[in-house]
Design goal:
The complex is a heterodimer of chains A (222) and B (310).
Chain A: E1 2-6, H1 9-15, E2 21-27, H2 30-33, H3 39-55, E3 61-67, H4 73-77, H5 80-83, E4 88-91, H6 95-104, E5 108-111, E6 113-123, E7 126-131, H7 147-150, E8 167-168, E9 171-175, H8 177-187
Parallel strand pairs in A: 2-3, 2-4, 4-5
Antiparallel strand pairs in A: 1-6, 6-7, 8-9
Chain B: H1 6-12, E1 17-22, H2 31-40, E2 46-49, H3 61-70, E3 75-80, H4 86-98, E4 103-107, H5 128-140, E5 158-163, H6 170-183, E6 187-192, H7 196-208, E7 216-221, H8 227-236, H9 244-251, H10 256-274, E8 280-283, H11 292-298
Parallel strand pairs in B: 1-2, 1-8, 2-3, 3-4, 4-5, 5-6, 6-7, 7-8
Classes of the chains: A alpha/beta (222), B alpha/beta (310).
Bound molecules: iron/sulfur cluster (2 copies).
One iron/sulfur cluster (SF4) binds at residues 131-134, 137-139, 146, 148-149 of chain A.
Chain lengths: 222, 310
């Protein structure tokens, strides 16, 4: 899923400092699971902002709603009535949701979250990045551990000379992806696979090829 | 056999090679590096020119190489994968060759996190293994990295790489060295050796697999200015192993700098006499270039052989 975290409230407030009424739109997708933009977080942010503005002597009116998914036109359409008379829309979705709202409504739409990465949770309250969206998955060559995003240098023939005691040279808190790959290949009895020189990657399937689009004609309607 | 560089010729002749390192300045004057080049000229076969080492902006390694060459030393241009994509790399390689550079050392490069531009982007379009392979293919098969033919004047570099016997996983370090040799590396410079026992174990594995017969290995030696420098490398730099005994030896010395030089001399003598499969030394006197001549002289490696390219 997409992992996002809320921006500091003062930063969010600064984006709508000239507004009198705002809509805060949460999302029931990934950001609900990673506890940053679901119904609960939306209500808490709305009340915190109202309180802040009341103390400043510039009361703020808020309306709130949590969409099933902000990355789907169907659910975005349903927000029309809600955002009609607001000065700004604060989206608590990932960057995708913010853009869907901005595209759909002629309103000032601002992000309440920083979209960080795609990954999963390790333990409650800790999320980890797992995939760099390269568009040409090579996990079958690296024991199911992604070197593109989990190695700080995206090395395909690692580990580099900075790997020590299982950690990456950038921090003692970051595992060296190539140590993990080595350990796993060893366990699976596949170390010989690591002797193959992985060729330079074709990054054209990644963001380097320009904005991407996926089309499935078989499921298109009409 | 024709040789790609003077360093290649010396190694091929079976003589014990000596290389050193010159770090380009954080400004736009070549005065300092030219000074160092003149100082080292008669004592080394070639010098590495670092490529924005530790991710700190410095004069370009190729531009610095031009100055070094002009002063009479053969440069080994370092090229990291951190700052350039494959287009910029090849462009720089063509330019470097046209300017008389004949040796290239391929490395990953230190992550920018600890440099003076930690907010920058890194590139890593290709990794060091791929760079070695593509550089060799450029020379031997006349092909750009993309596979497109180089119609004429392909760059013909002597290709170097690094090996770090002190990083982990230790057992894999020899595999990775072998992989680099397979990719096309012709000479190897090792990370600074302080833990001699580990280096010997590494070389034992290298010899057992005959890798020392397929590539020239230059042992990395760094004279330390004092115990603080040793301690810093021990605790602050990932991929370094510095035994406590060395830190203490420097700490207890009357003149720490002298002791640092003595240690380096002992290490080189020890390696030459006891560690088979080593073809030379690479002396990395970090910001202390002036001690290199003494080290070379006192290890019996002076005078350096004459090796003009035909
Ligand atoms: S190889 Fe590519 S697609 Fe697969 S996990 Fe890594 S970044 Fe994602
Ligand atoms: S230490 Fe490991 S994870 Fe970090 S850059 Fe090197 S190979 Fe990649």
């Amino acid at each position: 899923m997409i992992i996002a975290q809320q921006k500091p409230i003062k930063d969010i407030a600064a984006m709508v400092s000239d507004c009198r009424k705002v809509a805060l739109i949460g999302c029931a997708g990934c950001v609900t699971v990673c506890l940053s933009g679901g119904e609960k977080e939306t209500e808490i942010l709305a009340s915190a902002m109202r309180m802040m503005r009341r103390l400043e002597g510039k009361p703020l009116e808020t309306v709130t709603f949590t969409a099933t998914r902000q990355c789907d036109p169907e659910y975005v359409d349903a927000l029309e009535g809600l955002v009609k008379d607001v000065d700004a829309v604060i989206s608590l979705a990932c960057g995708v949701g913010v853009q869907y709202l901005a595209e759909r409504f002629d309103k000032w739409v601002v992000p309440a979250l920083n979209t960080n990465f795609i990954g999963g949770s390790r333990v409650h309250g800790v999320w980890e990045e797992k995939c760099g969206l390269c568009g040409d998955c090579i996990l079958h060559k690296t024991g199911g551990i992604c070197p593109i995003i989990r190695c700080s240098k995206s090395i395909l023939n690692g580990p580099c000379g900075g790997s020590q005691y299982g950690k990456c040279e950038i921090s003692k808190d970051v595992d060296c992806a190539w140590q993990l790959i080595y350990d796993r290949m060893k366990k699976l009895g596949r170390l010989d696979k690591l002797m193959e020189i992985q060729p330079a990657k074709d990054w054209s399937t990644s963001r380097d090829g320009g904005p991407r689009r996926a089309v499935r004609e078989d499921v298109m309607i009409g | 056999m024709s040789h790609y560089s003077k360093l290649h010729k010396i190694l091929d002749s079976g003589q014990f090679a000596v290389t050193a390192e010159i770090g380009p300045p954080k400004h736009a004057s070549a005065h300092g590096i030219r000074h160092h080049a003149h100082m080292l000229k008669n004592h080394v076969d070639a010098t590495n020119i670092t490529d924005c080492q530790t991710a700190i902006v410095r004069m370009s390694s190729i531009a610095s190489g031009v100055h070094i060459l002009d002063c009479g030393i053969e440069p080994i241009v370092q090229m990291t994968c951190r700052d350039r994509n494959r287009i910029a790399m090849q462009s720089d390689l063509l330019g470097a060759y046209s300017l008389g550079m004949r040796n290239v050392l391929c490395l990953s490069g230190d992550h920018q996190k600890f440099g003076n531009h930690p907010t920058s982007k890194n590139v890593y379009d290709v990794d060091s293994m791929q760079l070695i392979y593509l550089l060799r293919r450029m020379r031997d098969e006349k092909k750009f990295f993309s596979g497109e033919e180089i119609k004429e004047h392909e760059p013909r570099f002597f290709i170097g790489a690094v090996a770090n016997p002190f990083a982990d996983p230790f057992e894999y370090r020899v595999d990775r060295l072998e992989k680099k040799v397979e990719a096309g590396a012709e000479f190897i410079q090792t990370q600074c050796i302080f833990d001699m026992e580990r280096f010997e174990r590494f070389m034992e594995m290298v010899r057992a697999r005959g890798i020392d017969q397929r590539v020239y290995i230059l042992a990395g030696i760094t004279p330390l200015k004092g115990w603080r420098a040793a301690k810093y490398l021990q605790t602050g730099v990932s991929g370094m192993l510095v035994p406590d005994s060395l830190v203490n030896r420097l700490k207890n010395a009357q003149d720490q700098k002298r002791e640092g030089i003595e240690v380096a001399i002992e290490q080189i003598k020890y390696i030459r006499e006891n560690v088979k499969g080593v073809h030379g030394v690479h002396i990395m006197a970090i910001a202390w270039e002036e001690v290199v001549p003494e080290i070379v002289e006192r290890t019996g490696l002076f005078p350096r052989p004459k090796a003009d390219l035909e």
